[in-house]
């Protein structure tokens, strides 16, 4: 049997190895962030009439769905390009290469699994607006067009447009902020299931030294990057986000999808989706993020918005699979 002396050396070696790996990951993320933030950038060179989609992916099991969603985005006439941000460093290259992604879709492997990578201002972006999207949500063509048009109509910098609203409120019992569903007619955030924003907000989020501590919270919690982006946008605009309702939105990650798909592929998709629901603990953690961001910034920039821009009546929850049919997710 190994001696206690040998055991202590083995433990020490493992600790050193873990620290080395951690520092290497931090260095890689920092290098990627520095490269993106140092890239030349001129607003006048960006196309105002087209949209870039930033589509995040992580689970190898979801690659077929990810490729299909990326292809649907790329086929939209207003989408100039789709950038798939692959955030799983352990995936082999050949697993991503075949089958190929559709035309107008490019793949970028991020330096780590940091959720902050979703908002890096990649030098390949050639449009003034981007759509940040989850890998399990797909608006139809009419919904994409309407959301982009709503963003173009905004006359203030820092505008956020989205389909999925959420809110914040004071939690007097806990002495902080709570993350909540939108109150009737009132909301203060939109989710990254699908949000349209200006590329300048990507730079503000990723490159501002003032936000370094808040970005570290996102890395520590592996959560709340969308909340922080709403903070950044509200700080820039002085107003809340814009909720739109148009066309239809297919949502594979909504927990209200058909329960009898439990043993099948649909349940597997929900279990690994970026927008899958994490229960009460998830909501509490997001409330803690709001409180921590407020503390770090020394101010509360989130503002409430009221009402929404409507083209066609479809619920914000999107479409779910129930009984083999696609219906509104909030339908009993």
From TrEMBL:
GO CC entries: membrane
InterPro entries on file: GT64 (IPR053318), GT64_dom (IPR015338), Nucleotide-diphossugar_trans (IPR029044)
Signal peptide residues on this chain, from the entry's feature table: 1-24
Pfam families: Glyco_transf_64
Location of the Glycosyl transferase domain: 52-309
Superkingdom, taxonomy of origin: Eukaryota
Keywords: Disulfide bond, Signal, Transferase
GO molecular function: glycosyltransferase activity
PANTHER family, alphabetized: GLYCOSYLTRANSFERASE FAMILY PROTEIN 64 C3 (PTHR48409:SF1)
Annotated family: Belongs to the glycosyltransferase 64 family.
Stated name of the protein: Glycosyl transferase 64 domain-containing protein
Organism of this sequence: Lolium multiflorum (Italian ryegrass)
Taxonomic lineage: Eukaryota, Viridiplantae, Streptophyta, Embryophyta, Tracheophyta
């Amino acid at each position: 049997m190994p001696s206690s002396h040998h055991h202590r050396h083995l433990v020490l070696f493992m600790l050193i190895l873990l620290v080395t790996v951690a520092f290497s990951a931090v260095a890689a993320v920092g290098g990627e962030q520095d490269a993106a933030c140092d890239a030349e950038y001129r607003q006048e060179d960006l196309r105002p009439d087209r949209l870039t989609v930033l589509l995040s992916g992580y689970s190898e099991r979801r690659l077929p769905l990810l490729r299909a969603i990326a292809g649907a985005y790329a086929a939209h006439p207003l989408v100039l390009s789709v950038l798939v941000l692959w955030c799983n460093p352990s995936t082999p290259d050949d697993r991503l290469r075949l089958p190929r992604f559709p035309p107008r879709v490019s793949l970028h492997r991020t330096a780590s699994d940091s959720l902050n990578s979703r908002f890096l201002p990649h030098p390949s972006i050639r449009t003034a607006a981007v759509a940040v999207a989850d890998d399990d949500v797909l608006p139809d063509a009419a919904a994409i067009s309407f959301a982009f048009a709503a963003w173009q109509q905004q006359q203030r910098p820092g505008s956020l447009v989205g389909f999925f609203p959420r809110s914040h409120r004071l939690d007097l019992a806990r002495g902080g902020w709570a993350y909540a569903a939108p109150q009737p007619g009132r909301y203060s955030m939109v989710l990254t299931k699908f949000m349209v924003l200006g590329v300048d907000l990507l730079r503000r989020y990723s490159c501002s030294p003032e936000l370094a501590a808040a970005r570290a919270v996102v890395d520590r919690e592996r959560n709340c990057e969308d909340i922080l982006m709403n903070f950044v946008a509200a700080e820039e605009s002085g107003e809340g986000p814009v909720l739109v309702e148009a066309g239809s939105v297919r949502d594979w990650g909504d927990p209200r999808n058909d329960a009898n798909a439990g043993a099948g592929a649909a349940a597997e998709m929900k279990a690994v989706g970026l927008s899958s629901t994490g229960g009460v603990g998830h909501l509490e953690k997001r409330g803690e993020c709001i409180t921590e961001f407020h503390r770090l910034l020394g101010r509360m920039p989130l503002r409430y918005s009221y009402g929404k821009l409507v083209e066609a009546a479809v619920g914000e929850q999107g479409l779910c699979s129930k009984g083999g049919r696609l219906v509104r997710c909030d339908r009993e």
